[in-house]
From TrEMBL:
It holds the Pfam family RPE65. This is All-trans-8'-apo-beta-carotenal 15,15'-oxygenase. It comes from Silvibacterium bohemicum. Its EC number is 1.13.11.75. GO terms for molecular function: all-trans-8'-apo-beta-carotenal 15,15'-oxygenase activity; carotenoid dioxygenase activity; metal ion binding. Belongs to the carotenoid oxygenase family.
Length: 500
């Protein structure tokens, strides 16, 4: 392949120029005709292409960079995503299905190296050795029953206690070698995470102390939300076990200056179906539209009775910040008016999955003294993947960064919210491009909020190639676009860590 053509910078494309570029690249033999047809068929196909299995595993250096990587941005961005759409001949149905692919970008003195590798869990290796899909996925059953579900660390990745942990929320974290990305074993936090306890994919970290907070659920019929403090020595301390009226689903949490908040949507599992082994967890989910969404407010030290507040039924995956001022709290959440997202995600591989209600960026105000929700306002439509300057956790924040999607939840617009001026700034990915969650990286430890960089992957269908964008968080101006020469699936979450 002609690398000079491959790395030619492309301007932001409208549909007309996209057509012209695709025709040129097809004529030059640089892109397959069926890929062109897919892109032209609409954004539905862009969504499929953006999450396709990776082109390769490996390490690539001397990457082509448009612009300039900031010389003081020296560290590593880790991303993780479901990396398969088929497993040994079986079509995977759900967007969450597939073995986890880790991608890391190492930035050093203006240069970039990218590595990609599947997390080689014992289950993945067992399937590879037999050439058969043996384990159920969240939304796809294995052809032959018996092995149970797979612990897929494809949701988030953090560095903690001197090791890299890929997180699934369906089981224990996977410890991964930071250099080689080799799987090193399931991690139980020095024996402090009980054997059958899951661990959230969204732990939160206190910016003042460095201590983390996390939660898990016991596999089986225990109906309790177990809350942990992640101690600086790497161990977990259980600080609460909160009984729940039914089997529940909590994906994310909020960390304030004094409290933790868990938002529990009225989503349950049909347990007989789930434990039959003949129905996937995705298909066993039930939405109780007449039940409330519950907010559980717990003191960070676990003491006292949690405050339970109710809101109308809805679905939620992610939250922004939680600001506390005395008895008053302000929290931002991506609330959907129903759980139609589940039907969409479960039928994701089909040609025409049912459409879903899009999440709304919603600000709730809580009065702990009155024990009630005193305000609720929608401040953004169709958005997801909220990130903010986590040095501001628990305090009033001016800025939030989200991704706005179209149909099929393909993220195509980066949004910077300025709550002080009630304004937003947008960056559109451009036709034939998809974006991934943007990670805020402060310029340095003492910089002010919003003074830093936004790092996010993007995917160009025209080039069938993944890139890393580095933007000034305050202006959204792009400092650099790092072309990888590969395509990696757009996924969910990741984090950046400065070199120490
Ligand atoms: Fe998430």
């Amino acid at each position: 392949m002609n690398s000079s053509l491959l790395h030619r910078p492309l301007p932001t494309l409208n549909r007309r120029s996209l057509l012209a570029s695709l025709s040129m690249l097809t004529a030059a033999g640089l892109i397959e005709p069926q890929l062109v047809a897919s892109v032209l068929a609409g954004e539905r196909d862009l969504g499929r292409l953006a999450v396709q299995a990776p082109s390769s595993e490996g390490t690539w250096s001397s990457l082509h960079v448009e612009g300039a990587i900031p010389k003081d941005l020296n560290g590593t961005l880790y991303r993780v995503a479901p990396g398969q759409k088929t497993n040994h001949g079986v079509q995977l149905r759900h967007l969450f299905d597939g073995d986890a692919l880790l991608v890391k970008y190492q930035l050093r003195e203006g240069n970039a190296t990218v590595s990609a590798r599947f997390v080689e869990t014992p289950e993945r290796l067992e399937e590879a050795a037999t050439g058969t899909m043996l384990y159920n996925e969240f939304g796809t059953l294995a052809p032959a029953p018996g092995k149970g579900g797979k612990n897929q660390p494809s949701i988030n990745v953090i560095r903690w206690d001197g090791r890299l942990l890929a997180l699934s929320e369906g089981g224990h974290p996977s410890a991964v070698n930071e250099q080689t990305l080799a799987f090193e074993g399931y991690w139980d936090f020095h024996g402090t995470l009980p054997k059958d306890m899951s661990f959230t994919a969204h732990p939160k970290f206190d910016p003042e102390t460095g201590v983390g907070y996390a939660f898990g659920t016991h596999k089986g019929r225990d109906l309790a939300l177990t809350v942990f403090r992640m101690e600086l020595d790497g161990r977990l301390t259980q600080i609460a076990s909160l009984p729940q009226p039914d089997y529940f689903m909590v994906h994310d949490m909020l960390l304030g200056s004094e409290h933790l908040v868990f938002v529990v949507p009225p989503v349950h599992y049909d347990l007989p179906s789930l434990f039959s082994g003949r129905v996937t967890p995705a298909d066993a989910l039930r939405y109780a539209a007449s039940d409330p969404t519950r907010l559980i407010v717990l003191r960070k030290d676990g003491t006292g009775e949690p405050v339970i507040l109710e809101q109308p039924a809805g679905m939620v995956f992610h939250h922004g910040n939680l600001a506390e001022a005395g008895d008053l709290m302000t929290m931002d959440s991506l609330l959907s008016p129903d759980a139609s997202i589940f039907q969409h995600l479960a039928a994701w591989s089909e040609s025409n999955p049912p459409q879903a209600q899009l999440p709304q960026l919603t600000r709730l105000t809580l009065d702990l003294k009155q024990k009630r929700v005193t305000g609720r306002s929608v401040i953004g439509e169709g958005q997801e993947f909220p990130r903010f300057d986590t040095r501001m956790s628990g305090k009033a924040t001016r800025h939030l960064y989200t991704m706005q999607g179209g149909e099929n939840f393909t993220q195509q617009t980066l949004v910077r919210h300025d709550f002080a001026s009630a304004t937003t700034q947008h960056v559109d990915a451009g036709a034939g491009n998809a974006f991934e969650e943007a990670v805020f990286v402060p310029r340095h430890g003492k910089s002010s909020e919003d003074d830093g960089w936004l790092l996010h992957q993007g995917y160009s269908a025209v080039r069938n190639e993944t890139y890393l964008d580095i933007r000034d968080a305050a202006t959204l101006d792009r400092a650099a676009r790092v072309w990888t020469g590969q395509h990696f699936p757009i996924g969910f979450h990741g984090n950046f860590y400065y070199d120490v």
